[in-house]
Amino acid sequence: MEKFKTVVTLISAVIIPLVVAFLGNNYTQALKEREVQAQFVKIAVDILQSQPSEHNRSVREWATQIINRYSGVPLGREAKRDLIEKVPISATEFGQKFAGSLSSDDISKAQEDLRTLGLYKGPITGTADKATIKAIMEFQKSEKLPADGALGRLTKARLQEQATQVTEHR
């Protein structure tokens, strides 16, 4: 029995630090990748704020692909076409235009959470109006997320987390 304890102790002394190091490295890499993705979305939104032309069509296509891939807001065919071909779009318009993929319950919950955090003062309507999008953008900036005004998975998760923390501390 004593021999077994010794072997288990030795194995634990070697394996546990290796597992912790491996998991820590993976977590760090995931955070770095998320930061890079956030920067790509910010660049993409900046690109889409310029006037569309034949000269910048390919870069607008790239920007649209980046937003579709990383922002957490899946774009439909019409939305992709509009981003590539139509007039420049502001971050607020982007958030409003692509909030259509969310239910009014999702938007209402976001409005409530934003109100809890003191970022939104309007009524809970379930509609992504300009005040809601601006509040989402303020929240995204405070969390160092791309301030695109879209309520993607990451923004939504962090918003709910922050609002829950504030509520629990009251």
CA gyration radius, whole angstroms: 22 Å
- Helix and strand string, N-terminal first? HHHHHHH
Fraction in helix: over 70%
Secondary-structure content class: mainly alpha
- Tell how many strands the DSSP assignment holds: 0
Residue ranges: pLDDT <50 for 5 or more in a row?
none
Rounded mean pLDDT is 83
Question: How many discrete domains?
Answer: 1
- End-to-end Cα distance, whole Å, is 53 Å
What share of residues are in beta strands?
under 5%
Envelope shape:
flat
Features:
7 helices; mainly alpha; 170 residues
Describe the structure.
The structure is a single chain. This protein is mainly α and 170 residues long. It has one domain. The chain is built from seven helices and no strands. The model has no long low-confidence stretch (mean pLDDT 83).
Task: Provide a brief overview of the structure.
This protein is an all-alpha fold.
What is the secondary structure topology, with strand pairs?
Elements: H1 2-48, H2 57-70, H3 77-85, H4 91-98, H5 104-116, H6 130-142, H7 153-168
Helix pairs in contact: 1-2, 2-3, 4-6, 5-7
